[in-house]
């Protein structure tokens, strides 16, 4: 799950929250230190969330499969997406779930498929 999915799930719910909940049920979710920092900083900046909430969020995110950044470069349109691609590739992920158009237009990075929330949810069966 890309930063924008986590962000939307935490702050707004809706399809992003559904994707996160179903992802937790059906998938092994992967995070990296970069992803955790980015999610926490965006939420802290945009909401002025209290320290206790931010710390709890960081603790919860740290419980997922944590992948270190290899520093290897992959072909992406936006350099800010490199850490997302690296985490997914290094963890052997099948998918990156995102709303980021720069990633979605690629469709794949290496062998990792890039899908939007609706396609992700459509591919899951309960």
Give structural notes.
The chain has 126 residues and is mainly α. It has one domain (3-122): 3-Layer(aba) Sandwich (Rossmann fold). 54% of the residues lie in helices and 10% in strands. It is built from 7 helices and 5 strands; from the N terminus they run H-H-E-H-H-E-H-E-H-E-E-H. The longest helix is centred in the first third of the chain and has 15 residues, at 33-47. The chain is globular.
> Largest sheet, described in full?
3 strands, mixed
Q: So what's the CATH class?
A: Alpha Beta
By CATH, the topology is: Rossmann fold
Give the % helix: 40-55%
Show unreliable segments.
Answer: none
Structural class: mainly alpha
Spatial order of the strands in the main sheet? 3-5-4
Helix and strand pattern: HHEHHEHEHEEH
Radius of gyration: 14 Å
Supply the number of helical segments: 7
Overall pLDDT level:
91
The CATH homologous superfamily name equals 5'-nuclease
Gap from first CA to last CA? 19 Å
Strand-residue fraction?
5-15%
Topology, number of strands: 5
Short description:
By secondary structure, this protein is mainly α. It is about 55% helix and about 10% strand.
List keywords for this structure.
mainly alpha, Rossmann fold
Secondary structure elements and their pairing?
Elements: H1 3-11, H2 14-26, E1 30-31, H3 33-47, H4 51-61, E2 65-66, H5 82-91, E3 95-97, H6 101-104, E4 108-109, E5 112-115, H7 117-122
Parallel strand pairs: 1-2, 3-5
Antiparallel strand pairs: 4-5
Helix pairs in contact: 1-2, 1-3, 3-4
């Amino acid at each position: 799950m890309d930063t924008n999915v986590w962000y939307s799930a935490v702050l707004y719910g809706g399809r992003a929250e559904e994707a996160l909940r179903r992802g937790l049920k059906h998938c092994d979710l992967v995070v990296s230190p970069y992803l955790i920092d980015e999610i926490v900083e965006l939420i802290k900046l945009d909401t002025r969330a209290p320290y206790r909430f931010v710390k709890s969020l960081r603790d919860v995110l740290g419980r997922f499969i944590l992948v270190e950044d290899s520093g290897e470069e992959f072909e992406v349109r936006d350099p800010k997406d490199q850490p997302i691609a690296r985490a997914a590739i290094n963890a052997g992920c099948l998918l990156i779930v995102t709303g980021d158009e720069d990633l979605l237009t690629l469709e794949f990075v290496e062998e990792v498929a890039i899908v939007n929330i609706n396609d992700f949810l459509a591919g899951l069966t309960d």
